[in-house]
Structures are given as C-alpha cells and as structure tokens.
From TrEMBL:
This is Delta(3)-Delta(2)-enoyl-CoA isomerase. Pathway: Lipid metabolism; fatty acid beta-oxidation. It catalyses: a (3Z)-enoyl-CoA = a 4-saturated (2E)-enoyl-CoA; a (3E)-enoyl-CoA = a 4-saturated (2E)-enoyl-CoA. The keyword Lipid metabolism applies. Pfam families: ECH_1 (PF00378). It is an enzyme of class 5 (isomerase).
C-alpha cells in the first residue's frame, strides 16, 4: 500500500508494506487514489516526492506471485494483463500532475518499479546499493506499449535504451547520473531522501502555475501522451 503526507508545500507519497513493494492491484489502486488526492490539493509551489519504506527496493514491479497463484497459465496471464491495464492510469496521472515530481529511491527499481520512477521529473538514487533494472527480457515478458513509450521519452540515448530494454543491464546510481537518467546519487537511502527534499523545496519556491507546468511537461512527450490517451488542455495566459 502507500501513505500520503503533506509537509508545507511538499507531498510525500511512500510505498509501504513488504520490502519488495510489489505493484499488486491493491497497491496500484492506492497509488491512483493518492495521486488523485494530490492533484485535488495542489497549489502554487507544490511538489511531490515519492519514495518507499526500507532500504532494499523502491519497487520490484508487478506482483507476479499473485498472478501465478491464479492456477492455470491463462488465468495467470489474465491477472498480469489486468495489472498492466490498471497501472497505465498511474503513469498518466504522474505525467499530468500539476507540480514537479521527484522519485527518491532507497533501493532497487525494477520492471514496473522502474516505470514508476521514470514517470517522475527527477530521480534521486543512492550509490552504495540499488539499481535500475528492466527485467522483462530476462524473464520472458514483452513490454507493454506504454512502457516502451516511457523509455523512449525519458531515456535520451538509443544505446542506453538498448542496454536497458534488450540486455537487461542493471544500472547503479552514479552510472544513471552519467547517463542522464538520474539527477544525483548519494551515500545512503536517508541522504537520497534528504537530497530529494532539498530539490523539492528549491522547485517549490518557484511557485509555478501547476496547470501550465503540467501542460509544458505533456508537450515534451507527445508520443507518450498519445499512447496514454492524455489530451492537451488549452490554457489562456494571464498577461
């Protein structure tokens, strides 16, 4: 599940529960509810920090054990596809959120967990442990269309995308910074969150119009918005 807390202008969305923070149907629903609440409470100068309890995983992706517990392979596939479909609105909500967003990773972000991190404007990692890892090629699962669209939108280098998507390369914090995927890497989970707070406060002080911020973000990723079905919203400027 997840918790939501507001401290000043900063929203803190924290994945809780088991150390893997698997994206089960209940966790996905909890995330979507929290993002809806954040959007409804947004004001000028708001920012979001998403993190997770513990120091092993930010998120290890979809709850494959729950899918496999369905029994037959077809029933397991149906459960997996239901999670893929349910998670798509979470991605759309983050891309549309009217404020800057920061993912503070206390550990590994794998598969759907990597997607969750990439959907933020900034990623802050730790350098002593924790990797970014798209495991689908290793476990034999095709990528959903919006996963691939997020990759193309958020990872600028074709060579890095190849290594992430086709090789299953595990990217550590300092490597992610050098590749332009992460903003910074830090000595511990605690220092990564502290860095995210500093960045969030810095961004919040700009007191941007959140609706304008969201529309500019959407304009940066037209292909991704098309795959997600996100429409542009016309905003009349106040001059």
């Amino acid at each position: 599940m997840c918790t939501l807390e507001k401290r000043g202008n900063l929203f803190f969305l924290t994945l809780t529960g088991d150390s893997d923070h698997r994206l089960s149907p209940s966790v996905i629903s909890s995330l979507l509810t929290a993002l809806s609440q954040i959007k409804s409470q947004a004001s000028r100068g708001s920012a979001l920090i998403t993190t997770a309890e513990g120091s092993k995983f930010f998120s290890n992706g979809f709850d494959l054990a729950w899918a496999q517990s369905a029994g037959s392979s077809s029933a397991a596939a149906d459960r997996l596809y239901s999670m893929v479909d349910a998670f798509k609105p979470v991605v759309a909500a983050l891309i549309s959120l009217p404020m800057p967003t920061i993912a503070a990773l206390p550990g590994h972000a794998a598969a759907g967990g990597l997607m969750l991190a990439l959907c933020h404007d900034y990623i802050v990692m730790r350098k002593d442990r924790g990797v970014l890892y798209m495991s689908e090629v290793d476990i034999g699962l095709p990528l959903p269309d919006y996963f691939a669209a997020v990759m193309r939108a958020k990872i600028g280098s074709a060579a890095v995308r190849r290594d992430v998507m086709l090789v299953g390369r595990k990217i550590k914090g300092e490597e992610a910074v050098a590749m332009g995927i992460a903003e910074s890497a830090h000595d511990s989970a605690e220092s990564a969150v502290e860095a995210a707070v500093r960045l969030g406060e810095q961004l919040a002080r700009r007191k941007w119009n959140g609706e304008v911020f969201a529309e500019i973000r959407k304009s940066m990723f037209p292909e991704l918005c098309g795959v997600l079905g996100i429409a542009e919203i016309a905003i009349v400027p106040k001059l």
